[in-house]
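Blackboard transcription, Thursday session:
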Amino acid sequence: MEEIVIKFVGRKPSLKNPILIEGLPGIGNVGKLAVEHLIENIGAKKFVEIYSKDFPPQVFINSDGTIKLVNNELYYWKAKSRNQRDLILLTGDYQGLSSSGQYELADSILKIARDYNVKQIFTLGGYGLGREVKEPHVLGAATSKKLVSKMKKYGVVFRENEPGGGIIGASGLLLGLGKLYGIEGVCLMGETPGYLVDPKSAKAVLVVLSKALNIDVDLTELERKAKEIELIAQQLRSLEEGLRKSKEDLSYIG
Amino acid sequence: MEEIVIKFVGRKPSLKNPILIEGLPGIGNVGKLAVEHLIENIGAKKFVEIYSKDFPPQVFINSDGTIKLVNNELYYWKAKSRNQRDLILLTGDYQGLSSSGQYELADSILKIARDYNVKQIFTLGGYGLGREVKEPHVLGAATSKKLVSKMKKYGVVFRENEPGGGIIGASGLLLGLGKLYGIEGVCLMGETPGYLVDPKSAKAVLVVLSKALNIDVDLTELERKAKEIELIAQQLRSLEEGLRKSKEDLSYIG
Amino acid sequence: MEEIVIKFVGRKPSLKNPILIEGLPGIGNVGKLAVEHLIENIGAKKFVEIYSKDFPPQVFINSDGTIKLVNNELYYWKAKSRNQRDLILLTGDYQGLSSSGQYELADSILKIARDYNVKQIFTLGGYGLGREVKEPHVLGAATSKKLVSKMKKYGVVFRENEPGGGIIGASGLLLGLGKLYGIEGVCLMGETPGYLVDPKSAKAVLVVLSKALNIDVDLTELERKAKEIELIAQQLRSLEEGLRKSKEDLSYIG
Amino acid sequence: MEEIVIKFVGRKPSLKNPILIEGLPGIGNVGKLAVEHLIENIGAKKFVEIYSKDFPPQVFINSDGTIKLVNNELYYWKAKSRNQRDLILLTGDYQGLSSSGQYELADSILKIARDYNVKQIFTLGGYGLGREVKEPHVLGAATSKKLVSKMKKYGVVFRENEPGGGIIGASGLLLGLGKLYGIEGVCLMGETPGYLVDPKSAKAVLVVLSKALNIDVDLTELERKAKEIELIAQQLRSLEEGLRKSKEDLSYIG
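(Written on the board underneath:)
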């Protein structure tokens, strides 16, 4: 069996210098939330399924009782106006389990990207702060100084030595390996506590991305999800607060 | 050395559109118990031994002092009447140790299955509930809605979002990869506490499977084993109960 | 780089149906001690060095400051009389780190063995009992019933279901894979506490082996080492005894 | 994707029997500190970037917001006088994550070395003592007795059975595999506590190396860094001392 199995679904689309946008599971699931929202909102269509021996040996069960082997998927969207660009969108159930598998997957995706003449990549992810975030900034990193300047105009924040550990996983590799292949790229990282899935951070990332892509994205659904998560977070906090107080009371009595 | 070594034993059987049935070690060993019982009961014959670098580097010692390298094995059985189908049965000592090895093994087995023109797979396993199970249901998942409907008629239960984590290991992979190869499949999962090997759950799975295959299977041996295990389980429970009471008594005295 | 690098040292020896004897690191280091003693005692000569990516990335430093990349090695010995057989002896610094690497190594060694027309293998190891052993028995396992009978004559003990977990590592794999290649084999396991290296157990194994091979082996050096280890074991035991008593005294006073 | 990607940067230099010098991350980062200092001090130029699937899937972010895929790098330097030799210097962000990956990397580097007709290697590293080191000695190991004698003249210390565990990682493998390829080599290990990065130990190593290479190396920058680290170490020690005293006081009061 091949390390990675690429399966085209339906007719191969004809795309004009598309931009590749990645959002796979990660911190706060920010990237995956953002790209899945984008796919649904603009009506992108699946055209590639990617299977790998480095994904878990697992199938999911759909609500109708049918199964789905875990994978990554590519969607495409064709530009509606002159100031837009065709898009390829990458999302999926997992990132590779091993370092080696992650390199293989990024490499395979870049090869498809090159076949479609992709010259630019956006990778989306979360930047975990380990604390509450009122208004998440979107931090950036890019393959060239020119792109850094360009991104600053869209409100992307570039802070020296942040994130300190660099970027780990597909969001980093697609830029790093892509650069070797001569493909430019930007990573957009929404600040997030990192404890729960974070639609608020995903929204912040999409606000920046929609400017860069000249695409109107309806964000109400993400805002609704963000409120749900905020509610859950509040309940968790009051629960913790309650526990803390009980302990204080007990130690007082004791 | 090849990743996987396929060794045919004796003459290759000639089979007509056989159905593949898998039962490898897993939760409650339900699948392995079921398939091994079936093999013995219908008198299926071994025709393939499968060795893999992803199995542990281990030999077992038979009661006569001879050794056996750990493996997976395929057995075949030829239909006795018109409303039956030829069978290939898969069982073995281990599943692959790594994710990659599990994909390789499933892929190798599917290649043999394709050579024999297999169009349908049943994978058997346990669904661990972590609690006592009076009368185990048999949960299902399948590669198509049509198969889901068909299986419901045999008493298979399809519950939305169960099992929540999907199906992990060979039982899932054979269906997931099989689907990519155009082979239909069903996974039958017997409910089980999951603590001990569970012949009762294996019996429940075989009751469903024997209906689907139009095969009479004598289940008395599994029932006998189920009673043995039930006895062991009762002894463990009364032991726990005893321990719990001793603690209560001590805390009362103390 | 190849998975495994086979390097012949000096001229390839010409051997007549040699017997392969394996003794690699393992429980009580019994197998390695036995084979290394045998190599030295009969004056066997190194003719192959085996390097593998599955050994640790490590060099040892010799007493003269020079380095040695960790490896496995093959030695040969030519029969001195008609009732003896030529020998190939395998020992080394490590077994493979991964399951896959262990299969590769065993397979590579068997390929060399086949080139030399090896028809029989002895693998040597320890059987860890986790308790003191006065007079270690030598347990056995073999690739055929005929060999089991033959070995019983040399005092080898075959106990049903012992060792319970079978044989793990090179001692098992060389027999298991060897059997697939049509090579007969016996594993001799000296009983050992398993805590310390165990020359006494290695001696017991060599007593059996020397009978099977019709070779006189001077065991005084192993007996000397066994006495050293026995002394260390006694010191450890009296240390433990002392600690235990101190605790009792303290609890009495307290 | 290849296991390892070798990317030449700019024109391939023409070098005359260069010496290879390795300094990758390790204990006290001694080797990496030494080689990076040497590269900067003699003005060596990068000519090869080495990427590997066995490095972490990670990019670093430069201070200007651009990214860098983690790698190893080769630099070259051309001799300025007759009694000097051309140099190839190896440093990098990581060593391989797995044993197998480390062998692959060492092998790839040795293949480049052979293409450049390298006949001698120096590998640099730290020897962790787990205690304070006033004046670090430089311990050695080499591929031949002749080199051992030669190195003693430069003040390198050879102690029997030290380091006890041999040399692990690239510093060991380049010598061990190099020896198989007929390349001579020396490992220089600076004594170090091993807790913090250790420029003092790196300096000691460079003092020896500069003699062996007939190169003047300005060590003031390393001395400056060593003073910084010494300050940090003192602060840590007084912090620990303070903690220890507080505990004593408390136990006195208590």
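Lecturer's comment: The radius of gyration of chain B is 20 Å.
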